[in-house]
Structure formats: structure tokens, C-alpha cells
Protein 1
Amino acid sequence: MANKNNKKRDTHTISMLVANKPGVLVRVAMVFARRGYNIDALVVSPSVNPLYSRMTITAKGDPNTLDQIIKQAAKLIDMIHTEEHSDVDAIHRELALLKVKATPANKATIVKLAKKFRTHIVNENDKAIIIEQTGTTDELDAMEMLLKKHGITEMVRSGKLVMAKGKEST
Amino acid sequence: MTPKHKTKTHSKFLSPKQITGAEALVKCLENNGVEYIFGLPGGSVIPIFDALVNSKIKLVLVRHEQGATHMADGYARATGKPGVVLVTSGPGATNTVTGIMTAHMDSVPMVVLTGQTISPMLGKDAFQEADIVGISMPAVKHSYLVKNTNDIPRILKEAFYITNTGRPGPVLIDLPKDMVAGPFTGSLDPKMDIPGYTVPAKGNQKDILKMAKMFNEAKKPLLLVGHGAVIAKAEDAVRAFVRKLKIPVTNTLLGKGVFPETDPLNLGMLGMHGTAYANKALINCDLICSVGSRWDDRINGNNAEFCVGAKKLHIDIDPAEMGKIVKPDASVVGDARLVLEELIKHVEPQDTRAWIEELAFYRTEFPLKYSNDHGLTAQKVIDELYQLTKGKATIVTDVGQHQMWAAQFCLTEHGRKWLSSGGAGTMGYGFPAAVGAQFGTPKELVVAIVGDGGFQMTMPELATVAVHKLPVKVIIINNRFLGMVRQWQELFFGNRLSGVDLEGSPDFVKLAEAYGIKGIRISKVEDVRSKLLEALDHNGPVLIDAEVIKEGNVFPMVPAGKSAHHIIIEPPTTQLEKPTGST
Ligand SMILES: Cc1ncc(C[n+]2csc(CCOP(=O)(O)OP(=O)(O)O)c2C)c(N)n1
């Protein structure tokens, strides 16, 4: 776990408001790829204004390179606004769907765990349980660790969404 | 081609009053002040070429699309107006990529119109379909795929605005054939829709004041001017600033002329093949302020050792340049001219006499020099050209040794009088760029200085020159080698020559004559002046084959990846270690 802190410091969350046009995603992705930055998660979704889309990108790497990436991305003609968000200035949420092997022996434990973490069981039969969890990345990571013991057969995570706190715009 | 006829565009589907997308496109090009289009047709753009028949825009037919892009680039650098390129889809479009990248690296405004297959066939591997928007994406400032004929005027308006504002750069517009062949029913003067695009103008006042304070505290300041100062038309502002502060100036390869290189305060070009005194100034200055340069690795060599101890100031219109290479102690994002015009109000002249004397000493101690004792050198030819033209000519270079010698010996007194591919270092650039510059500035004397290697990459444009009787003078510095690479192999790789011998090159004088162009050969030191005069006096294109010694080397030289401390001024007598820098 010594690594964990480092990993966290190197992980960045960038929110972008972009013109809702074809090709924008490629242009943004290229800015990252060209500088050897790996995108860990990416969410593209409509914004309030249908002319614009919101991209939320989670990426790992050195902060100086990231600074350059953000500046280069900001130069894209289709980029309206871009900003990096810390845990402090914004609400961060992620959603996960976890499919866990169910046996008569573990079912009760899983159900208890799901309750404790305030997650929902959205589907179950005698072979598998699907859990839906919304929370911070850390919370999702913790749940994943606990459920691993019972055998996660599938996991889908949405990637992070962020929204700036207060009246600041994201 | 059929002779020009003033008839309506060929279309059986349109009523007489209705216009096609192609005609709307050409109207918009006219409205945007386009004088010349450099291009070559093909199936997908025939409707546009057809619409050009009735236009006042002059079409320059090239022999290869790369030539068209460099012509547009030379036109743009010489005039400050965007160059326009029109090519067909597929291979026509991909042939423009080198020229687009070259323009992008040097912030040159250019609008590239590419044909494309009809929209219903997009992505289906149609004949001559190339995803040129995708292929060119990392090399353009912006690009468009037209999906609606009525969008053409808006896209053009945006393209011309984007390409030549802020930090200029090429814009590509991909035009599916059905979009230009189909009827146009929209407005020819629509509103732009680019809310994400803003252009920095005046700098932030606080930033300017902070910068002024550093200038006022500096004992050994140095101004570094780059291409951005040319683009921003900051010549007068730079001159006023330098005169007020009496500070020495050095320029990048592309910043030549912003401050006259004939002025004693100008140290000439810095960097890998810059003057020894400019590089000494880098080592000894206590403040360096870049005006529109991007601290290229050909300048600072090794970032960790670059101007150690000096305050680093940066003025640039591109916010992404701040901290990209050099972490500035003070920076202003804005138009170089506007920033300097404000900054000058807040700086006070300091006593720089000792500093200037120190640099003058280096200038006399380590001058640029060459010898005529061992045959005809490139420097002799270039120096003589300079003595004959004295900064009056527009000098356009290709890439290699001759480029560096030209930079050293062709002192430049105004921006836009020196055109060279700096960022990309594109061989094949010089000759077509000179052609474009000559189209853009017909009254100027335009001289291309090219290598025998690079010239052969785009030499079919001799036909373009012949057809238009363009009076460009092309001087081939013919050393029968890919000289710059040979120099590296000699200095750093034990003279193991590999792939640099240009055997098989044609007789360039005969080649010129084959195109009906005057060819002149220079091979003796004593003939240089008279032959150059003969060429300059000739009222038409001239191709000069200057047969120079084969193994001349460019000095001074700072090996790639090294700081200015490691400058080699005299030819080394020992083997040097292999360079660690990028290229
Ligand atoms: C398109 C391209 N290919 C390769 C190079 C690498 N390169 C840089 S300088 C040079 C030699 C140029 O030779 P020449 O045109 O004869 O000019 P010289 O250096 O001899 O003056 C080469 C091959 C380049 N810059 N551009």
C-alpha cells in the first residue's frame, strides 16, 4: 500500500467543456497520446447546453506533462473550457457494476456487505449477484477489494464524474 | 485544358440563378482577399476548378502537391497573408502533409482545401478516399469536414480567421465532392461559430510590470527575438525597446530581420550554428527575454545548463509556450507588439556599456570567417550574394549546411525578408517557397539558396517558374553531398559516410535549359561576383549551379544536446562524442 499515495498524487481529474462535434474526442485524445499519457477513464456526456459536451478524463502521470497537456488541449478550437479538479474543490463520483459469484455459503455475507457500503443489489439469482455502487473512487476501490475474496466475475466502472463545488463552474 | 470561357458553371441540375457549393466557395475565397491558389486538380475537385474559370483568383498549377503547400507557405511568410492550396482527394491530399506540418511548426497561415469522395461513400474505401482530416490532425491548427453545402461560407470565414490570428497555423477543409457540386442556398456572409477560440491581445498589466522591474534590475540583459515578433509586426516596437534600453539582441533562425542584423547591438543568430558571440551572450547574460521564440532545442541545447543564473522572461501569444521548455521567472501572454509597446513605458535605461563592450570583444575575437585558399566555398558564394544585395533581396533557403551559412552571412534587416523552414527543417522547402514569395511580392528580388539534395526533392516546380516567367534566382550550393549529414558523420561518427553521396545528380545548367530557363555555373572563386551579377541582372528565372568544395563544414557548432559552453568554433582535431540531443 506504500504505493497508494504516490498513485493518488499522480492521478489527475480533468474536466472539459467541448463543442458537441464529431472528431473532438480524437483531437483531445491525441493531445494526451502524443505526450505518452495514458487515459485511465473517460466520460463523455451531454451538458445542459446541447451545443456542448462534457468530458471528464482521469489520467496518471507527471504533473508538468499534464500541465502542458491541459494547455495544449485548451488551444483546440473546439475546447470551450478545461480545468483540473482536486478532491477539495469538486465533488467526485463514480459508478460501478460488480457481478459476484453467489453460493449458498457466501450469499448472506455479500448482501450484508452491500448494505454496509450503501450499495444496491440490482440483480440476483442463485449463481450471481450484481451490485451497483456509487461513490468516490476510493470507496469503489475498497468495495472491490472486499468482494474480490468472493469472486468478482465482471466489473464495469463508469469513470469519474466531477462537478465543481459552490457556484464555481466545472 | 480548355481555354478560359466566361460561361456559367457546367451543371444541368441548377436553375440559371442558383449557384453551386463550388461557386459559393470561390466567391468566399474572393471575399477573403485570396489572390492566388496553388494546386493541382483531380476528380473530386473538378467542380471547384471549374468555378475558378470565372474567378479573378489566379490559379498556379504545380507539378506536385508538396510544391503547392510550400508555395502557399512562402507566399504567406513573404506577405503576411494566408496561402491557399487546392488539391484533390486521396494522394493529392496526402501529398500536402509535409507542407502542412512545415507550416504548422513555423506558425504560418495557410488554408488547405482538399477534395474528398462523395459523402455517402465516406469511410467505405471509395476510390481516392483518404481520411485526410485524421491524417493531418496533429499538424493543423484546425480542420473541417464539410457536411452541408450551406456551411461552406461559415467554415471559410472561420478558417481564414483562425489561420492568421493568435498563433497562426494551417487550417484544412475537406470537401466531399457532392458538397461542392450540389446547390448552395445559404448566406455568403454568415456569422462565425467558434466560441472556444479567443485571441490574446494586450498582456496582463501586472505581468508586464513584474517584467519591467526585472529589466530595471538587470546588468547584462539580452533580448531574444523569434518568429513571433515577425508575425506580430513587432519590428518597430522591438527597435524602440532596444534603442531605449541599449540592450544587445540575438535572433533565432526565423527571427532574422526583426532587429537589423547590421546594427552593432545585434549579435546575429544564436544556437547550434549561431555566432560565437551570441552564444557567449547566452552564457554571460543575467536576464534573457524571449519575444516570440519558443526556446527551441536548437537554441538552448541542454535545458538544465541554459542561461543558468539568468532571469528568464517570456513574451508569447501562445499560453502553452509558457513553461513548455523553460520555466520563466516572468511571462506575459499577449501580442508581442502590444506587450512591448506597454512594457517600454515602464523600463528605464540602465548602464549597459560594459556589457556591450564585453560582447564586442567576443565579436572581434571569434568572428564568422571562411577562407578562399582551398577552392570555392559555399560561404564565399553566399557572402558575395549578400554583398551584392545588402539585405534588399528576400532570401529563401532550403535545409542543410547552406541554410546555416546563409543565416550567418545574409544579414537581414526586416522580417519577411528571410524565409526558411525552421521547426520542421523540411528539405525541398526552399525552391517552391521562393516561388510563392515571388508571386506574393512581384516587385521584390527573391533569391532561393538551396542544397543539391533538397533542391532535387521539389525541382519539378521549375516548370511552374518557366510557365509564369517568375524572375526568381535559385542558387544551388552544390557540394555533391547531403552535406549536413556528411558533416555529422565526419565529426561524430568517425567519417564513416553512409547514404550521403549524391552521385547521379543531373547537370543543373542543362536541366535549367531543358525547362527554357537560364542556367549559370559558378566554379571559380574569381568568377563568383560576375556570375552572380549576370544572374541578378537577368530579367527572368535563373538557376545557378555553384560548384563548391565538397567537404566544407559549418562552424561554430554547438553539438545537439549540449549547452552553449560546448561551442566548437574552430574545426576540431579530435573525434567528438556522439551527440545526445534530439536530432
Ligand atoms: C525531407 C528531409 N529529409 C531528410 C532530412 C535530413 N537532412 C537534414 S540536412 C540534410 C542534407 C541536405 O543536403 P543538401 O540539400 O545537399 O544541403 P547541404 O547540407 O549539402 O547544404 C538532410 C538529409 C531533412 N531535413 N528533410
Protein 2
Amino acid sequence: MTQWSGYFGLILQGALVTIELTLMGSVLALIMAFLAGLGRLSRFFAVRALATAYIEFFRGTSIFVQLFWAYFVLPFIGISLTPLQAGVLALGLNVGAYGAEVVRGAIQSIGREQYEACIAVNLGRWQSMRHVILPQALLVMLPTFGNNAIELLKATAVVSLISLTDLTFQAQVVRSQTGNTMVPFTTILVIYFGLALIISWGVRSLERRMARGLDGVRV
Amino acid sequence: MSAPIIKIDGISKSFGTFKVLDGLSMQVMPREKLALIGPSGSGKTTILRILMTLERIDSGHIQIDGEQLYHMERNGQLLPADERHLARMRQKIGMVFQLFNLFPHKSVIDNVTLAPILTKGMPRAAAEKRAMELLDMVGMADKAKAMPAQLSGGQKQRVAIARALALQPRIMLFDEVTSALDPELVEEVLNVLWRLCSETDMTMLLVTHEMGFAHDFADRVLFFDRGKIVEEGKPDEIFRNPKQERTQGFLKKIIAAGHRV
Ligand SMILES: Nc1ncnc2c1ncn2[C@@H]1O[C@H](COP(=O)(O)OP(=O)(O)O)[C@@H](O)[C@H]1O
Ligand SMILES: [Mg+2]
């Protein structure tokens, strides 16, 4: 009879690593998304070019290769990262590239009349962005950001390949020690799904809170 | 005899190959109330948008209060205006739009206080006190906490007027501010305009199809057609006794369309 409770402990530890990776990766992705998304809309050609290069590069290459590169190649130029750091870096940069297009699209979806109202009350470019355009654009971004966060959660499984002890890694450990495949992998399947649900709910309630009053019904 | 507060000198403006304004010149005196009338597409909105710096001119000069709007004088030379110069000039001018353009994510009072707090560094409490006075003046004080989406068109427009007034501009531009409103809501907005007209010494430029109101409101009426001033004069002259055929034709059409004169 297998001592399952010990193995569940292992999987729970893996879950914590996965959650940590998802949170930190999402924060980096969010920062990169805004930097590159706003960069795409910059007045300066060099900034636009840099943002475009980043977005195209990270969308055009695989997350596996990016991760391996961060973990195995960076040490050759003197940058040694822990598996967690490499994972956060690869996930954040990769998902941030997709997020940047979301940021850009959302900002461009705000009507010209809002920009003109800003000029008419003499707000500066950054003031307009910060107080008028971004708050409205954020609402447009949120649903897609939710999807991106779930994509990021699912992509965390790749870090098991550089032996970071996340959910997927621990499931493999349990499998090799017990010879049982069904129990560990069914367990992590359910956990991944549960985490994704939490993200969906979180984003949706944030969306509801931010939309309050905009439709003229709830205040 | 004081100097004009707005001096437009031979300005031209094209959209693509279409020349909307071709060497237009006009002047507006301080405190003057001006009505701009004319058929749709004659360039009235474009003139207001140019004064609000929402549209650039291709050539010519504009002086606001004795200062170049689109140029900066540096060591006797005229250079194109930079953002800082434009921001300083914009302090003198406010605009109210046909479609209100309120900030939908901000409450009524926040719509009014946002710019004074950000651009004039006004403390929030002072900005809110001033905003409440303005909202009271436009009859919207009881809706200060409401969101724009909860308001009728006439209410939105009155808030938009308060928002523009909060910056205390010397010149106010009104672009068909009642055209998007249901007929029963036009009156409440015109009443506010009337108060501003009779109680303040702001210079006001009003583009409108409300000929009856333009008649009472304006010191001077300009009739535009195809980017040119075809006729100008005292309201009585323009509305009772237009000299130009095109003005006569336009007014006839407007009356036929049910607008009172
Ligand atoms: N952004 C623009 N792009 C192209 N054409 C424009 C633009 N804005 C105005 N126009 C054209 O310029 C002319 C004058 O427009 P406008 O100033 O809005 O006239 P009015 O307010 O008197 O109706 C119209 O023919 C209009 O189609
Ligand atoms: Mg117009």
C-alpha cells in the first residue's frame, strides 16, 4: 500500500512553486506588456523599433528555447540564474510580448474624442494617458490579460525541464517512485484547472468592479 | 479701442487635397459674443478646432491675446510652437463639443476637478468647492456624484460646460452644443449659454443652427460658406435683412427645416 499522504505533500509543494512562478511571471509580463505596448505607440522611432523587435522576437520563438537559453546559455556570458529566476524571466518576457499587443490595441480602441477632450482641458500627454486613456483601456485589456495569465500558468509546466520542482516535476517524481501514473497526473490536472478557475474568477470580479458606473446602471 | 483677443491672419487648411480654409482672416474683440452660422461642411468646426489646437494650420498666423498661437517668438524669429507653448496658450481657451466628450470613467464632479487639479495644481478641496459652484450654476449640483452614463444628453452637456469653465478660460468655443440633443433638452443648455453670455465677460464663439438663439446671443454674426466669410454683421442685419444671396438661401432653408429665427 503506497503512503499517498507523503506524496500529496510533495505535490502540494510543487503547487506552491507553480503559484509562485505564475505570480512572479505575471508581474514581469505585466510590466513588459505596458513598457512594450506603450513603446509601440511612442513618438520616437528608436523606442518603437525596440518595442517591436522585442514583441516579434518573443512571439516568434518558442518558450522552450527561451527557457533553455536563459538557463543554459546565459551562464556563458556570466549570468547564472536559478531555475526559478530563469523560469520567471522566460515566462514573463514571453507572455509580456503577447500582452504588449493587448495594451497597444486597448489604448488604440479609445476614441479620438477622449484625446481631444484631454487637449481641450489642457492635460499633458502623460496626464491624459494616466488619468483618462489608460483607466478606460485597462477595462478593455482585462479579459485578455486573464487569458494570458492562464496561458502563463499552463506554460509554467515547461520549467520542470530545467528541474524546477513545480507541479509537473513533482508529479513525475511521484510517478517514478510509486509506479503509479494515474493518481499523480490526475491530481495535478485538477490542481491546474483549479488555479485557472481562480484566475478567471479574480479577473472577472476585477472587471466588474472597474466597470462599475460606466454603463449607467450600477454605482 | 482695445486690441482683438483673436486675430486670424490668412490661414489655410486642407484635408488631403480638399482645401477647407483658404486664406481666412477674421478678428474677435475681447468680451465679444460671436455666432458662426453656415451650411454643413463650410468649415465652422474646423475653425474652432484650429483655435483649440486640435487641428494644425498649413499656413497663416493666429494671435491669441497678442501672442502667436502656432509660433513662438525667439530672438525676433518665429519658430513653430512646441508643446509647452501650446499648453500655455491653451490655458486661455476652452471648448465644448457637440458630443460632450465627458470622461465616462469619472463622476460628474471628477470630470470637472480633474484638469484644475492636474494642470493648475489646485488642492482637491478647493477644486471641488469651485466645481460645486459651477455645477450649481449649470443646475447639476445634485448630480455631482453621478456617472456620465446616468445622465441625459442635456445634463451631460451642462457638465461639459462646467468642466470647460473650471479652467477659467478667457475664450470659450461652442461647437453645435445642442445639435445632438433631443428637442426638449435643447432649452436647458441654451439657458446656461444665455447666463454665460449675459453674466460673464468671456469671449464666446458659438457655432449653431439655433438661429433664434444666435440672434439674441450674438453681438456679431458671421455667415460661412465653403470656408469663406460670405457676410457678417449685427444679428438684426444678417437675420432680418441679409444682403448676400447665399445668406438668404441658407436662412430660407433653415426656416423651412423648422428652426425658428
Ligand atoms: N479630419 C478630417 N478629414 C477630412 N476631411 C475633413 C476632416 N474634418 C473636416 N473635414 C472636411 O472639411 C469640411 C469642413 O468641415 P467642418 O469644419 O466640420 O464644417 P462645418 O462644421 O461647417 O459643418 C467638410 O467638407 C469636412 O468633410
Ligand atoms: Mg460642424
